[in-house]
Amino acid sequence: MDVNPDSPYYINLLDSKTHPEDHREYVMFHGCSKQGAELIKREGFKPSSADRMLGAGVYVSRDIRKACKYPLDVPDSEKRVLKVRVDVGRVKEIDKRNHPMQKTWHTVHGFDTAWVPPNVGMVPSNQQENCVYEPKRIKVIEVMKVTEENLSQYDHLQSGVTPEDSHVYVMYHGTSKQAAVEIQRNGFTPSKVGMLGAGVYLSRDIRKVIRYPLGSSDSDRMVLKVKVNVGRVKVINKKGHDNQYNWHTRGFDTAWVPPGVGMVPSNQEEDCVYDPKRIKVMAMLDVANLKKVNPWLTHG
């Protein structure tokens, strides 16, 4: 089956901390002015000069909040973020300043994309950066204004990063087809008990929710893609945490379990939202179709 990244079943899960795989397509973002966006749509991207951090190429990021900062001297009302699809080809990780291939990754070594991970001290914001040598590898999908609504719909890519208070995030909920229709019609009914007490259980990591309900076949599973206003967030990062079950009575709206802390059998992240009114269903995604379009979910 051909993979169509514009399909509602195509999930670009890779967060900004994960190394991009060779010869894959990823959704990325490029910040520019309104005028620059019109020029790029008309004539395509023009590679930057060779004196940039990674040399010549088109600079893009999988972190939309990095892209939305540029151009630095342009007000937000005149900025645009280009959502693009990138065939990365061969990828070289550049993970420190003065890396021996920092500016020769394409011209000498034949790589198509250079990737700087976040938090390695190369980018002032400590966010990730990609440089694609050949503009023909990049296709513009959408031109977006810099608004919180546009930015928040891509925050689900950061499943390992603490959700910020009062932000809106895309999350997922795994359930049966029958229950999905009921939720779409009448809204979520909070669980009365669970690892984090009462609330609606969700995750920004679709690999976690796609397994539910446990014991069901894919033909009866559905993933709800939802938008969540998290309100005040409490991090619950260990078993027996003092606020594991009473976080809501302490004034928090959402509890978040980070990945890899030993609370969840899969070691993936978990969110519990106390008030279902904070959750809005965006789409119902059939699990069988999700796995056809995203084969890696089968092994996730």
Question: Strands, helices and their partners?
Answer:
Blueprint: E1 25-33, H1 34-43, E2 58-60, H2 64-67, E3 79-87, E4 91-93, E5 113-116, E6 129-132, E7 138-145, H3 148-152, E8 168-176, H4 177-186, E9 200-202, H5 206-209, E10 221-229, E11 233-235, E12 254-257, E13 270-273, E14 279-286, H6 287-293
Parallel strand pairs: 4-5, 11-12
Antiparallel strand pairs: 1-3, 2-6, 3-7, 5-6, 8-10, 9-13, 10-14, 12-13
Protein name: PARP catalytic domain-containing protein
InterPro entries: Poly(ADP-ribose)pol_cat_dom
Domain PARP catalytic: 136-239
Description:
The protein has 300 residues and is an alpha+beta fold. The chain has 2 domains: 25-149, Phosphoenolpyruvate Carboxykinase, domain 3; 158-299, Phosphoenolpyruvate Carboxykinase, domain 3 (Alpha-Beta Complex). Helices cover 13% and strands 27% of the residues. It contains 6 helices and 14 strands. The strands form 4 sheets. It has a 4-stranded mixed β-sheet with strand order 2-6-5-4, with no helix packed on it. A 4-stranded mixed β-sheet has the order 9-13-12-11, with no helix packed on it. Strands 1-3-7 form a 3-stranded antiparallel β-sheet. The two termini are 19 Å apart. The mean pLDDT is 88. Belongs to the ARTD/PARP family. It holds the Pfam family PARP. Residues 136-239 form the PARP catalytic domain. One of its GO terms (molecular function) is NAD+ poly-ADP-ribosyltransferase activity.
